[in-house]
Amino acid sequence: VQLQASGGGLVQAGGSLRLSCAASGPIYEINSMGWYRQAPGKKRESVADSGDTIEYAESVKGRFTISRDESKNVVYLEMNSLKPEDTADYFCYVKYRLYGIRRWFDGWGQGTLVTVSS
């Protein structure tokens, strides 16, 4: 299973970006898809998850919106009112099952860099 993320870039504070991530491969079922981010010198942190319930980090609530296109196995992250502290590598992930295998797997995409200038 592969994840391809896109949509990062450079934006001024207050601006918007939309990230997308497509999962491909022999996926039987997806439990959740979401986004983490990692800023320079900091630990990776969860940003948003679209499992049974949608969850957001406190720091992005009201500004970021996660959505999924289940027919295409794509997850989006709409980011508005961006702040310099949102600058980070953003990584998408998927929790999935393969055909004929009961256990769940975690897959990660490559990071897409978001830089917010002040």
Note down, in words, how this protein is organized.
It is a single chain. The relative contact order is 0.33. Strands 2, 4, 5, 6, 9, 10 and 11 form a seven-stranded mixed sheet that branches. A four-stranded antiparallel sheet has the order 1-3-8-7, with no helix packed on it. With 118 residues, the protein is an all-beta fold. It is elongated, with a radius of gyration of 14 Å. It is built from no helices and eleven strands. Strand 4 (27-38) and strand 5 (45-50) form a beta hairpin.
What's this, in brief?
This protein has 118 residues and is mostly beta strands. It is built from no helices and eleven strands.
Instruction: Give the overall shape.
Output: elongated
Overall pLDDT level: 96
Q: Can you write the helix and strand succession as a string?
A: EEEEEEEEEEE
Please give the share of residues in helix.
Answer: under 10%
